[in-house]
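haha ok so turns out i had the wrong file open the whole time. this is the CORRECT one, sorry everyone. sequence first:
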Amino acid sequence: QEKSCHLSAALLGEDSEISQEQLYELLKYAALGKCHDAAQPSWCRIYHQSHLAGVVVVVLHEMSQLHFYRFYLQFKHLRRVFQHRFTLAPSANFPVSLYGEGTNLKPQNTPQGLTSTSSECITKNSDLQCDPIIQRYGAKKQGLTSYTLTLEEQEKHGYPIEGSPRSKGYISTECDQQRTDSSPLFGLDCEMCVTAKGNEVARVALVDARGQCLLNELVKPESRVLNYCTRFSGVTKKMLLPVKTRLSDIQTRLKKMLPHDAVLVGHSLNFDLQALEMIHPSVIDTSLLFARSEGRRFKLKFLAKAVLGKEIQCEQKLGHDPTEDARAALELAQFFIEQGPTKVAELNLEMLLTAEKLSEPSQNKAALQSQGCGFQEQLNEPPPLSKPCFLDGLQVTGQKPLLLGRQGLDSSGLCQSNLSTSNKQILQRALEDVPLSKFSIIQFTLGPEYLASHLHAGLYEKVRSKLTDMLTIYAGPFEENFCMKSVKKEFGRCGPIQSLTVVTETFQPYVCIQYQVLEAAQLAVESLNGAEVAGSCIKVQRPVTAAMLDCNVLIEELELDVENEGVIYVAGLKNSLTETDLQEEFSQLKDLETLFLPKDLQSGKHRNCCFLKFQKTQSAVDALEAINGWTMKGSELRSRNALAPGHLWRWIWQMNHSNGKQGKHIFYEKMEQLSNSEQDLRKKVKKLDHHIKKLYRSLQNNTLCVVLFPGVN
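then structure:
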């Protein structure tokens, strides 16, 4: 249908991990849309949101990516229907942040309609010790150096660090002089657009301590632009057409402008420095400076209004003004330093944020007073607050979201809660109630007996062991004095090698090769079995173990996975080739949408392979035929259909570098118990997949359905 609602999310490889906040961006915009001032998600796009029939979130309680891949064949419906799949970055108290504290909450008769808990710290003028700002910085006023992030804090919050593999190739500002409390402050802000490379700078602004603009420049991205993000960046295709300035020009200018003891100030400045590909040792991040509990952060727009009394990022403007944002962040830091933590805590920002939400057009001042409480009275006598959850933000619609699950989930008053005792009962209630609700959360669980820690450790070791076997091949037999270098070169053409060892227990030598990606191992089996390598006609095979008996079935299913549709794997690339080189080389391929050149997550170096995603499946088939046998810069290319999406190979890498942290002794001690319970677990998962299938088929057209494996953390 021309006006059907649909989702666009073309993330590949390293971009396939999303944060809890990014997930909430998607759910919030889907639920509220433009009429409630919700913004399009930053990482994907929903088209024709007004045609959305509803939002359904299925939560598989305490199940994780581990369960999905251990029971990949059992999740038949889930993997065939859901075409967008992302790793959800770990976060504390995920269920609490989604739908509230739990059964200990009781609704309070407050004007806000919020809930309270006895354990919540309430900030009052007479008692500030529970305020996160006081807990972090103390009550006394200090100099600016007390508020700069330590190296550990920078690393924790994703700042580029000197010597870090992820910052390889980044430029240092070379501002290495000792900082003092009189060091100069500079406000920095960038606006980004989405390119084939990821997020790239499209505009950059720098202001000095007096707020004077030193730099406000448009920047031409290196890669092809996929989304100008005009709503936020204010940058359009037309604006960038005449621009000649490149990232390297901006890096050079910033290095010249900043004195050696400069302190950079920004709001979530880590993203700006990453996009600039620059390292700066001394930063103040206002999103962390104005501390909140549970790792949450205030938005810059709110802080500017609440602290400085300034309106920024106005709806009437086309996108954000980076100079305005840089100046606002700078002035916020100056206010904090000059006034001190106590004065900032006394502003009671959490209460102001609640009041601001209540004063939105749907609930004006008159409405508040009719409930028996004036606006000023609320500020003076704040009611108890619960820890905010995602569902708080949906209350503006006037509809209560539907929450279905087992007992012990929610009685906070935020939802229409229907508590059931079995997954079958939950499904029956969902089939009846979901069509009547615009936003529903359905939680299924395997039961506590299947989620015990020792079973989890055993599952982890089984999956790790199986994936390692799938990445491993044995080749041989070779002559006694065979050339190992020739073997490594030939098998290296199939993809990046993790390890290569000679097997000496056999009559003639064999070689054991472990690859870093599944496609490489499969390509070696398909192309080198029966080939002549190092002067010998060899056989190439995977290890023969009980767990590997269904390997071919698993490979076939992975290849047919909807997520790998239109994606091919190309190996044999020279390490010297850049993404720009490859874009040029592959530009003749029809309907090429995205090129992803994976990096080694430890060294940061490019691997000798890449993934190509095509808009049409047939174009991918044609590209496979064209590429096999291609010679690029003197190197012969090999290719096949993709098997493992980005989040899977990243996860494989993490597993292979975990050094047995899951505790193998637990695994062996509990193996018998695991084997007995895993048969039941397979049946449970298969039934769970069937429940999801029935629920999915009952949904109206244009319903956004999200299935979460939140794990235990």
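The chain is about 35% helix and 20% strand.
again sry for the mixup
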